[in-house]
Amino acid sequence: MVHTISKILETAVRINSQIIKAYLIEEQENSGYSAQVFFGMLNDEIQWVRKKYRTKSEKYEWIKEFDDILPAIEKYDLGNFFSDFDSRIEQFELVSTIVNDFFNQWLHTSENTPFIKKKQNPPPPTLENSFNKMPIKEVRAIFMPLVETKNKNGEYWMNKKDFDVFIRRSFLKESLAKPTINFNETEKGCIIKLFYVFYTESKKKREITSRLKKRYIELLEEAFNTDVFFNLNSANFCSRAKCDWLIN
After folding, report:
1. How far is CA 9 from CA 39, 98, 100, in A?
2. What angle do CA 70, 71, 77 make, to 5 degrees?
C-alpha cells in the first residue's frame, strides 16, 4: 500500500469534503487490498482515534500533529482559528460516517458481488483487416501452417516473430520491414498455393471476383523479403503445387 491507513485518514480529514468518497475509493483501488479489508482497517483506525482522543481539546492535539491549522498565529484572528479547527472535527465525523456506510455496505453484500466496482480496463481494439473483409482471425488461421509446419529442409517456414510481422504488415497495413520466409526455389509453388487458398476462401465469402485476382498476386509479391514472386500472373497464380496445407 502506497499510503498507511493513518495517513489516508488524516488526508481525508483535510481535503475538500466533496471529494472524500472519490478519494477513499481511489486509495482502496491503489492499496492492493480488497474493499472489505481496506474499509475494515480504516474503520478500526477511526475507532482507535475516538478512544485515544475523546475530548475536543484532545482531538485538537491529534489534528495538530498532521495539519498545521495555524502556520503563524499572528496572521489569524481567533475566530478564523477556531473555525478551521472545528471544521476539521466536523470533517472527521463525516469521514467516519462515509467509512461506516462503506463498511456496512460490505456486510450486507453477497460474497459473490463486488463491493466496489474496480476500474475496468477498456477492451482491446478490434483488429480490422485492411486488405479485404475477412476477419483477421480467419486470415491468421489460413496462414498459420507457416509457423506450424516445416519445409523440405526441416525448418519452419516462418518463426512466430516474422509471422506476426507478416500479418501486421500485409493485413493491418503497419509500416514494417518485410519479414523473412524459409524456402528453396523448388518450394516456391507451395507458397503460391497457400496464397491461392486465401484467394479462393475470400471468393467463397463473395468478397471478390476473379477479376480482382491481381490484388492477391500483388499481396504475395510484397509479403516477404524476397523477389522470387515478382513474375507471377493469373496463369501461374494457382494451386498446382504438390504440397498440402492443412488449414484449420
Report:
1. 11, 12, 13
2. 45
Q: What is the pLDDT of residue 112?
A: 42
Closest to 166 measured CA to CA, from 180, 152, 154:
180
- Residue 72: CB atoms within 10 Å: 7
Residue whose C-alpha is closest to residue 215's, from 180, 170, 159: 170
CA–CA separation, 79 and 82 (whole Å): 6
One-letter amino acid at 80 equals: N
Question: Which DSSP string corresponds to 191-231?
Answer: HHHHHHHHHHHHHHTTS--GGGHHHHHHHHHTTSS--TTTT
Global pTM reads 0.51
Q: Rounded mean pLDDT of the chain?
A: 82
Question: Do the Cβ atoms of 182 and 157 come closer than 8 Å?
Answer: yes
What the block records as the C-alpha cell of 122 is 477498456
Q: What pLDDT score was predicted for residue 75?
A: 45
What single letter denotes the amino acid at residue 71?
P
- Residue spans per domain, the chain: 5-107, 122-248
29: alpha, beta or left? (left if phi > 0; alpha if psi -120 to 50): alpha
* Main-chain dihedrals φ then ψ at residue 156, nearest 5 degrees: -65, 140
CB hemisphere CA count around 53 (13 angstroms): 15
For residue 28, the one-letter residue type is: Q
